[in-house]
Amino acid sequence: MNSLTDQQLAARLALDIPDGAYVNLGIGKPTYVSSYVPSDREVLYHSENGIIGVGPTPAEGEEDPEMIDASKRLITVAPGAAFFEHADSFAIMRGGHIDIAVLGAYQVAENGDLANWATLDEKFPPAVGGAMDLVVGVPKIFVMMKHVNKDGSPKLLKRCTYPLTGLAVVNRVYTDLAVLDVTPEGFRLVELTDGNSLDDVQAVTEARILPPV
Amino acid sequence: MDKRVATLAEAVRNIPDGASVMIGGFGNSGVPFGLVDALIDHGAKNLTIISNNAGAGDFGLGRLLKEGQVSKFVCSYPRSRGSVWFEKAYAAGEIALEIVPQGTLAERIRAAGAGLGGFLTPTGFGTRLAEGKETRVIDGKGYVFEAPLSADFALIRGEKGDRWGNLSYHGTARNFNPIMASAARHTIAEVRQLSEAPLDPESVVSPGIFVKSIVEYGVRP
Asked: Which residue stretches, if any, does this entry annotate as coiled coil (chain A) (predicted)?
């Protein structure tokens, strides 16, 4: 089966970020998305640590260690930016003011349940961060992840087995193999990575995938 | 009125064993590293630390953990790259962890500083982090009751300050510092620059009424 690289996946997702949107990119791979959003679209990026208007990585010699994003990457400030304290930052997130959040996931269920903060390994400290606040407050939750785990086991499930981040919160899942919408009927195919068939993708997915309407 | 203290050591010398201490910052940004180092030298033990992250590497909160001064950690994200001292203590069962969603952590701190008895948040409803908590459904949406969170001390970092305790901030170093300032019985602020002249009231983000002591520490991490 054909599999997108993380950068290709970010580029695909970036096409669905519209002009004028306020967007929160989760830590790690979702931060790749901003560099692929077409340059004729003005998008303002919120980061939970107190900024709207995250700009690109600073040039060498211009780094400021107190200017970081939620992934703790060094950032610059985009035109139109603002700083604020943490309670305000989460009022922005919970209060429905952000349009789209892009998050990673361990598991997504066909009813939109998301698990992305804790595994079943009790020795490993859980780390929730801002994910639970984002999923209750942001109207569009896009998940960006590998379609299956490293051992081949499925991540798109009938029901999550890991502790939940939020209930029925995911709208769309972008994986290296396909793009799927979460609908009241379950996962529905939006598109396949070039060269893949629905049968191939279904074979590595626990939940049923409905054909596009 | 003069809240200035001459040294970092003097600023933290009244923090006793067993105290609860809020420490500002997110990652390494806005962490009062001078005050944290002074707290390590001061040697208070059995501390409850309230801070978003659990340190990374061998400095700051990482060193406080390495020295065994912390018995409980309240935070949202203890698993940053390099949080080795926390992970060691946690795996060995030597430290208690209260994991709180980040927005709930911020709002619990804000509620304490604002004199509120708590609040209802949709965050965490139906998840493991709401187990055992009071819940309520309003207009069809589920909410979890969360209690205020105060502390004996807050160690915070600002950019500029004056002798009245007024503070301004720099970039994303603001984060938890303003709300923690309001939620502790004794807030100690470290500032990069302690101004002789009063700060312009229009530039003040944390009003000095929240701050008990202020000390200069010019190093930016």
From this structure: none
Contacts of A118 in chain B (CB under 8 A): 128
The set of residues, in sequence order, having a beta carbon less than 8 Å from that of A125 and lying 6+ positions away, is B78, B79, B86, B87, B90, B97, B99
Q: What is the count of residue pairs from A and B with beta carbons less than 8 Å apart?
A: 140
Specify the pLDDT at position B144.
98
Domain boundaries, chain A: 6-210
Per-residue pLDDT tens digits for B83-115: 899 999 998 999 999 999 999 999 999 999 999
Residues of B whose CB is below 8 A from A69: 172
Strand partners for A80: none
CATH class of A6-210: alpha beta
Predicted complex ipTM: 0.95
Model confidence at B82, pLDDT cuts 50, 70, 90, reads confident
Residue B81 has pLDDT above 90, yes or no: no
Q: Largest Cα–Cα distance in chain A?
A: 53
In this model, does residue B25 exceed pLDDT 80? yes
Quote the minimal CA–CA distance from B100 to chain A in Å.
Answer: 7
The residues, any chain, with a CB within 8 Å of residue B120's CB and separated by 6 or more, are: B136, B138, B143, B144, B145, B146
Confidence band (pLDDT; 50, 70, 90) for A120?
confident
- Active site annotation includes A48: yes
Q: What is the C-alpha separation between A178 and B212, in angstroms, rounded?
A: 57
Instruction: Give residues 81 to 110 of A whose Cβ lies within 8 Å of B.
Output: 83-87, 89-90, 93-94
Q: Does the beta-carbon distance from A127 to B99 stay under 8 Å?
A: yes
What chain B holds in terms of domains, given with CATH numbers, is: 8-105+149-216 (3.40.1080.10)
pLDDT in tens, B198-219: 999 999 999 999 999 999 999 8
CB pair distance less than 8 Å for B87 and A125: yes
Measure CB to CB from residue A49 to each of B101, B125, B172 and give the nearest one. Answer: B172
Contact A77/B at CB under 8 A: yes
Rounded-to-integer distance, Cα A4 and Cα B96, Å: 41
Select the residue of A48, A50, A132 nearest B174 (Cβ to Cβ). A50
Q: Report the sign of the C-alpha dihedral through residues A110, A111, A113, A119, in that order.
A: negative
